[in-house]
Amino acid sequence: MKFLSAFLLLSAPAATLSFSTTAAKAPMPQSNTDASGNSVDPLLIRAARGEKTERVPVWMMRQAGRHIKEYRDLCKKYPTFRERSEIPDVAVEVSLQPWRNYQTDGCILFSDILTPLPGMGVEFDIDEKVGPVVKPLKTYDDVKKMHLIDPSTSAPFVAEALRTLRDEVTPETAVLGFVGCPYTLATYLVEGKTSKEYLEIKKMAFTEPKLLHAILKNLAESLGEYALFQIENGAQLIQIFDSWAGHLSPRDYDEFAAPYQKTILEKIKAKYPNVPTVTYIKHSGALIERMASTGVDVVSLDWTVDMAEGRERIAAGRAKAGLEGPGGVQGNLDPGVLFGDFATIKERAEEILKKAGPTGHVMNLGHGIEAATPEENAAYFIETVRNFRHEA
């Protein structure tokens, strides 16, 4: 690949590499171009739209990262996560590793849900052991320091990486973008770091709900702009992660999470109606109908939900909300299955594929792949799905 050759020629140490300053360019087309010059939509995009496809597409959440030896070797040269995700050449190389190794149908940008925060006036760091660290927002004065993002100024490296990925992958491969959702990002802004119980943000929700809503509204407006920025620079699908909304009761989900998910989704659809959207929430079994009712194209299920039941509940949630069609589904193999033998991986993966049915399904894990997963098992999972065919 032309990019890999160029990347391997980089001899400067990480500290001397400059971050991107790429100027804004014309929006990229949403479709790809094949060898004959024809416009084509990747398999994964067609499946996410609910179209009939020749097979089920597959990728893995967190597919780029710690379980791949090439990535761990790269960490020795680029020791911080922000270097690896904000230096375009490095981010592209990490994004391409699982695509090259496994032939996944989606190539997702290697980045983080917190990446847009500095562009909103909120600085953060990622401690390699602790995780994200943010100065907590506690007052209206703190919130007033936030501002609407200009991604072309604050995150040009994202644009450069996405555009390079579109050049590097085959026409059959979809380049995937993503954003965190307002509630999940707010957990970091209020708690100051990763939490187990999320007591600080819940305390704010129940004692100063207007303050929390002010934070969520600011985040939603900027995250919508950030999603559009990714689409305009090459992302062909946007997955929105509200990972920690699964800690909310249904009532609180309806108040503090769903409306702000809708803000992002509606902003995307208003400008790019043909770009598919996906929502993922960890431990979302109690929220599936609510997730579907937001109007998202695809609901990504975690592994605690039976696939057949999940499809029925997604369709029911959409119908209740007056939305057309049954909706799509993504997932949902337990990442722990990839520590089993090949026979177990095949049996569990094919069970999900059969329950999901032949249309509107993007195969994935029910959460991100674990760092200790053997690469050969990840490869076998992808191969199993790529070789599977539904009976006519």
| Biggest pleated sheet | 7 strands, parallel
Cα shape? globular
Number of helices: 17
**Relative helix content:** 40-55%
Give the class from helix and strand content and strand pairing.
alpha/beta
If strands are numbered along the chain, what order do they take across the biggest sheet? 3-6-7-8-9-10-11
Which stretches are poorly predicted, pLDDT < 50 over at least 5 residues?
A: 8-23
Radius of gyration: 20 Å
Integer average pLDDT: 93
> What portion of residues belong to β-strands?
5-15%
Describe the protein in words:
The protein is an alpha/beta fold and 392 residues long. The chain is built from 17 helices and 11 strands. It has helices at 2-8, 43-48, 69-77, 81-86, 88-102, 140-144, 151-154, 156-168, 182-191, 199-207, 209-232, 250-256, 258-271, 288-293, 307-320, 342-356, 375-387, and strands at residues 32-33, 39-40, 106-108, 124-127, 131-134, 174-180, 237-241, 277-280, 298-300, 328-330, 361-362. Helix 16 links the parallel strand 10 (328-330) and strand 11 (361-362). Helix 11 (209-232) packs parallel to helix 13 (258-271). The radius of gyration is 20 Å and the shape is globular. 49% of the residues are buried.
SSE order and pairing:
Elements: H1 2-8, E1 32-33, E2 39-40, H2 43-48, H3 69-77, H4 81-86, H5 88-102, E3 106-108, E4 124-127, E5 131-134, H6 140-144, H7 151-154, H8 156-168, E6 174-180, H9 182-191, H10 199-207, H11 209-232, E7 237-241, H12 250-256, H13 258-271, E8 277-280, H14 288-293, E9 298-300, H15 307-320, E10 328-330, H16 342-356, E11 361-362, H17 375-387
Parallel strand pairs: 3-6, 6-7, 7-8, 8-9, 9-10, 10-11
Antiparallel strand pairs: 1-2, 4-5
Helix pairs in contact: 5-8, 9-10, 9-11, 10-11, 11-13, 16-17
